[in-house]
Design brief:
The chain is an alpha+beta fold and about 350 residues long. The chain has helices at about 20-25, 30-50, 55-65, 75-85, 110-115, 115-120, 125-135, 200-215, 215-220, 230, 295, 300-310, 325-330, 345-350, and strands at about 65-70, 90-95, 100-105, 140-150, 170-175, 185-190, 240, 250-255, 260, 265-275, 320-325.
C-alpha cells in the first residue's frame, strides 16, 4: 500500500515510509514525482487552454494566479450577501492558532435559493477558467466561508507562513464577499512560484531529504514551508498582497507559495471558496465520476457526513465541528459589521484619515 501511494496525490513524508525515505529521496523519488506531476499538468492545461481567455491565460502562466475585479453583477453580488445573513444556515468551524474559520458547503439548497450563483458555477467560462488552473475538468468543491483572525486564544495561525500545499499543481479560488484591507490578513502569493525551475527542484529535493528530521509538522505532512529570506535564492520576488475590494475573484495554483498575511487586529474575510485537487498522474482531463452532476452538487455535504461517520468510528479525525447558526457565530465578534454593511475601501481610507 505504501508503494502504491507513490502514483497518487499522497504527499506526507511523515505518514508514508516510502515517500519519506531519505535514501529514496536522495536517489530522486520526490523529484521524479514532482517533475512527472508538473509535466502531466502542462500537457492537460494545453488541452484546456481553449476554455480560458488569452489575457487570463497569459497572466496565470506568468504569475500562477488570476485576479478579476468586479467579477459578479451588482445584483447577484448583493443577493449572495443577503443570503448569507439567513439565520437558518448551519455552519461548521475549525480553529487554527488564533484564527477561526466558519464554512458552509454549497449544496442543492443554496443553489436553489441563489439561481444566479448556480448559473455562474455551471457556466462554461467559469468552468473553463477553474479547469485550466486546476489542470482538470473535475468539479471543484464549493464553500461559503468566513475567516476570523486574531479572535481566539492559541498559537499563531499556521496559515500565516508561506507554504506550498502539495507537490502537484492544484487550484484554489476566492471570490471575496467583503473588502480585504491591507491589514485584514489578505491572501498573499509569490508570483511565479508555481513554475518548476531548476532552483525550485533543488530546493524541493533538499527539503524532501531533511524534512523528517528538521521540518515542522505541516512540512513533514507534505505542505512545505518557506521563509521570505529564502525566496531570492530561488529567483522569486517577495509575496504579492491581495488587498482587494469586495467582488474580486482570485484563482491560484497552490503548488506555488502562498499564505495569509498577518495583522495586529481582529480581522474578518467572507468569501466563496473553491478547491480542486485530483490525482496528478492521470493523463486525461475528465472521466471523473465525482463530477457527475447528481454527485457533484452534493459532494461537499456528503463529504462532511462521511468524515463525521469515520470520526465516530475512530478511523479519521473530523476537524470541522458543528458551530450553530452562521450569522450568530460569524458576524458578531466585537468591532465587526455584517458584510452587507461593510464600508468600501475608499470610505475606509476616509475613516482612517
Amino acid at each position: 500500500m505504501w508503494i502504491l501511494a507513490v502514483l497518487t496525490g499522497a504527499k506526507s513524508f511523515a505518514d508514508n515510509p516510502i515517500l519519506g525515505s531519505k535514501r529514496l529521496n536522495t536517489a530522486g523519488l520526490h523529484v521524479w514525482r514532482l517533475r512527472t506531476a508538473h509535466a502531466l499538468a502542462r500537457w492537460r492545461r494545453a488541452r484546456l487552454a481553449r476554455g480560458i481567455p488569452a489575457q487570463l491565460k497569459k497572466q496565470f502562466d506568468s504569475d500562477g494566479y488570476i485576479v478579476i475585479r468586479d467579477f459578479l453583477s451588482p445584483e447577484l453580488f448583493r443577493s449572495i450577501q443577503r443570503e448569507l445573513l439567513d439565520p437558518q444556515l448551519e455552519c461548521r468551524s475549525q480553529q487554527q492558532g488564533d484564527t477561526i474559520t466558519h464554512r458552509i458547503p454549497v449544496g442543492p439548497r443554496l443553489r436553489h435559493r441563489l439561481p444566479g450563483l448556480a448559473k455562474l458555477l455551471d457556466s462554461s467560462p467559469w468552468k473553463g477558467l477553474l479547469a485550466y488552473v486546476a489542470s482538470t475538468r473535475t468539479e471543484p468543491l464549493y464553500y461559503f466561508q468566513a475567516i476570523a483572525g486574531g479572535v481566539a486564544e492559541g498559537l499563531p495561525d499556521p496559515q500565516l507562513e508561506l507554504h506550498s500545499d502539495t507537490f502537484q499543481p492544484s487550484m484554489k479560488a476566492w471570490l471575496f464577499l467583503t473588502d480585504v484591507p491591507e491589514d485584514g490578513r489578505p491572501l498573499t502569493y509569490v508570483a511565479g512560484s508555481h513554475r518548476l525551475t531548476k532552483s525550485r527542484i533543488e530546493w524541493e529535493k533538499r527539503r524532501s531529504i531533511e524534512v523528517k528530521e528538521s521540518g515542522d509538522r505541516l512540512s513533514q505532512r507534505g505542505s512545505l514551508r518557506i521563509s521570505t529570506d529564502e525566496l531570492a535564492a530561488l529567483g522569486l520576488p517577495q509575496p504579492t498582497y491581495f488587498d482587494v475590494p469586495a467582488n474580486t475573484l482570485v484563482v491560484v495554483d497552490t503548488c506555488g507559495f502562498h499564505a495569509r498575511a498577518s495583522s495586529d487586529r481582529p480581522t474578518l474575510r467572507v468569501e466563496l471558496w473553491a478547491f480542486c485537487r485530483r490525482s496528478p498522474f492521470l493523463p486525461w482531463t475528465g472521466l471523473d465520476l465525482l463530477s457527475w452532476r447528481p454527485i457533484a452538487v452534493r459532494r461537499g455535504e456528503w463529504l462532511q457526513t462521511i468524515v463525521d461517520w469515520l470520526d465516530r468510528r475512530g478511523w479519521m479525525r473530523q476537524h470541522w465541528r458543528p458551530a450553530g447558526r452562521w450569522p450568530n457565530n460569524v458576524f458578531t465578534f466585537p468591532g465587526r459589521r455584517h458584510p452587507a454593511e461593510s464600508p468600501n475601501q475608499s470610505e475606509r481610507k476616509e475613516m482612517r484619515g
